[in-house]
Structures are given as structure tokens and as C-alpha cells.
Amino acid sequence: MSAATETEAPMTASADPVAERVLVEDVERLGGQIKAAREAIGRVIFGQQDVIDGTLVTLLAGGHCLLIGVPGLAKTRLVQTLGVVLGLDAKRVQFTPDLMPADILGSEVLEQDESGRRGFRFIPGPVFCQLLMADEINRASPRTQSALLQSMQEHKVSVAGHYHDLPSPFHVLATQNPIEQEGTYPLPEAQLDRFLMQVDIGYPDRAAERAMLATTTTDRPVEPAPVLGDGDLLAAQRLVRRVPTGESVVEAILTLVRNGRPETTALPEVKAHVAWGPGPRASQALALAARARAILDGRLAPSVDDVIALARPVLIHRMAPTFTARADGVALGDIIDRLVATVG
Fold first, then answer.
1. Which terminal residue of the chain has fewer beta carbons within 10 Å of its beta carbon, N or C?
2. CATH number assigned to the domain comprising residue 101
């Protein structure tokens, strides 16, 4: 099913023709901005268009992204480029086993003023930014990982009993190395669920790697150029939530997510091979990501095709295989493909 066949009445459409016209104009303008941002990122990051699109969809939907890939695939460069192109304050933290929560959140220090009066002053940590790269997040201890959980969910941190609001917008792009698992601490399910999408990063093709060589090994490296300004991403995220969603898209999301739960599915392979499935946050993620993907493609409303395309990155980190599935070599990706077949 394509966007062109989405003719039903949208669930969030306005009855005011003027409001509808304004919404269409705003979406078209945002589509132009995102297209320009996409091209600006593509001039710096080679051969990773799917990764760029997945990250942009995540940011437009207002979520956090988990990037899975081996070292050397420009994950750090991607975050730096996104910060420049989207006009965001970006920072990077290398997660290690000895990293403490205060190294991320900040801490209070005791100071004495000129009159001799003592008091505590809060020194913000690197989490106080708009785009945080948590590099190799699974190398930190569970205690440090949990310190980031509050930031991701509530957009604020608690230090010494006092709350401190984070800048807005606030997004976490976390990376994991899929091949080096020694000395790692798997992310807990609660934290995995806070990532709107998981984006797998593969090697670039030959042509892209050739272009990268020709561009990055000269004395004139290509630098990213700003496209969006201060507050533009927040405005874009508000606009994404105003995009109408058809009833068939909502039904596809509900069917997909509920069929992924052993408790609510009729699919025998899910009952046998899935220990726990996606929760309601997965439905919310799919609804927002589908709208963002439509805008990224220059369309005014999402279709069932968007839900199908986003099923794997939205669901795969929100499901766990059973012992039987591991023993039989059944991959979660294959199960999600079966789920997609129920809505395709």
C-alpha cells in the first residue's frame, strides 16, 4: 500500500480548511528544510543514507537512537555533523567500566565566598547538551547506565536531591559494538525501551568508499554546513505531531505491536520464540516515526508502507527471544518479518 492510496479520513485532520492549508504549507516547508539537511549530511557521511534517514526520523519524532556498528563507520562523525547541520549543541562521552554517574550528570562542589560563607554549587556534566553521543554505552556499569535513564525519559537529572532541567531539545545517540562483548554490561530492558529506534550500521559499498577516500584524504576536507537554526528542530517536532494519521495506519501499528506479544498474539511462532514483546511505547514510536518518515520523503501523511519499513528498527530492541529460539537459531529479525506479513 502506497501513500497515494491513503484516501480515508485521517484521525487527526482539522475541519477548518484554513488550518488544513496552513498545515500543508508548514509540512511542505519542513520537507524542504529536511531535504536540505539530508543533503548536507550526505556530503560529509558517505554510503550511509539509510543510517542518516533513520537518525533524522528519530530526531524528528523527538526520540533517542541506538546505533549498532563496528568501529570506523563514522558514528562519531555523524553526531558531530548532525549537531552542526541541525544547529544543536553536541557532546560526546566515551563510556568505560570506571565511568561514574557524576562524570555524566555533574556534581555539587563546596565553595567558600569572600565573606567566608560556604555553600554548594552545581557543576553540570556533559549530559547538559542537546545532542549527546554515548559511545559504547554498554561498556559502562549498570549504575552509570541508570543515571542516563532518567535523562532520556524525563529530560532532567537529580543530583543531591535537586532537579536540574536539561536543554531542549535533548537527544541521546548511543553506540554499541556488536562484535566485542567482553567487558560489557547489556542494557536493561527499561533503558532499551527508551530508544525510539535501533539503527544498524553496515559497511559502505565500493563506490561510496571510493568517494570517501577521494574526499577525506586531501588537504581540503569537506566540513558540514548549518541548515537549521536555533529552535527549528523543536518546531519540526511539534509539526510532526500535527500530521494526520489514517485509520489503516493506526490499525497496522496496533496489529503489528500486539502480534509481537506472546500474551496477545495468535501466531504460534511468537508464542514459542518470544519471551517478551513490545509495550505501548513501541506503538507510540511507530506512530511518530511513520509521520516523520513521510515528511522526510516529501509526503503529507504516513502510509502502511511507512509502518512496514520502520517495523524492524522500532521493534527489534523491544523484543527478547526465548531459550528455545536461541537453541533453534531463530532470529528476531525473522520473527518481525513474520509480523510484517500480517499487516502487509
1. C
2. 3.40.50.300
What's the predicted TM-score (pTM) here? 0.89
How far is it, in rounded angstroms, from Cα 322 to Cα 303? 32
Question: Do 130 and 89 meet the contact criterion of CB atoms below 8 Å apart?
Answer: yes
Unique residue bearing C-alpha cell 541541525: 86
Report the candidate in 16, 86, 30, 84 with the shortest Cα–Cα distance to residue 228.
Answer: 86
How far is it, in rounded angstroms, from Cα 274 to Cα 70?
27
Q: Tens-digit pLDDT profile for the chain (344 aa)?
A: 333 333 344 555 555 788 888 888 889 999 899 999 999 999 999 889 999 999 999 999 999 999 998 888 888 889 899 999 999 999 999 999 999 999 999 988 888 777 878 888 889 999 999 999 999 998 888 888 888 888 998 999 988 888 999 999 999 999 988 766 666 788 888 889 999 999 999 898 999 999 888 888 888 878 889 999 888 999 999 999 999 999 999 999 999 999 999 999 889 999 999 999 999 999 999 999 999 999 999 898 999 999 999 999 999 999 999 998 988 888 999 999 999 998 86
- CB-facing half-sphere around the CA of 300: CA atoms within 13 A: 15
Instruction: Please state the domain count of the chain.
Output: 1
| Cell (9 digits) for 184 | 560489557
Q: Which domain holds residue 115?
A: 3-341
Which residue shows C-alpha cell 527549528?
Answer: 232
Instruction: For 59-109, give the DSSP string.
Output: HHTT-EEEEE--TTSSHHHHHHHHHHHTT--EEEEE--TT--HHHHHEEEE
Q: Measure the CA–CA gap between 195 and 168, rounded to whole angstroms.
A: 17
CA 36, CA 29: separation in Å to the nearest integer?
11
